[in-house]
Write a structure and sequence with these properties.
about 100 residues; alpha+beta; 4-stranded mixed beta sheet; 4 helices; globular
Length: about 100
């Protein structure tokens, strides 16, 4: 998270529909994820709205599940929300986040 002209900027992971089953099948915290991509999209959009209301500028960080799994394996991490968030933060630091319109 960083400040950008008096706004807090925060990276939020975005998953592709076609990779949603792969995420569900590989997640060690499957119970914490929405059952369908459409349910997740509703949650994603609600999260964006809530962030903006509180003055946070969300950056969309596209997550490739294969890259996430490789990263987790290399670091010795499980595929959980905690480590997905760490992965997303790392991608954001690499400049892979983009403004959401």
């Amino acid at each position: 998270m960083k400040k950008n002209k008096d706004k807090t900027v925060f990276g939020i992971g975005y998953y592709r529909r076609e990779q949603w089953p792969m995420l569900l099948g590989s997640a060690d915290d499957r119970h914490a994820l929405e059952d369908t991509y459409d349910e997740w999209m509703l949650s994603f959009e609600k999260g964006l709205k809530n962030m903006r209301v509180t003055g946070i500028e969300p950056l969309r960080v596209d997550v490739d599940i294969n890259e996430l799994l490789d990263w987790c394996k290399a670091k010795g991490f499980k595929n959980t929300g905690e480590y997905r968030a760490e992965f997303i933060a790392e991608l954001c630091r690499q400049g892979r986040g983009r403004k959401i319109k």
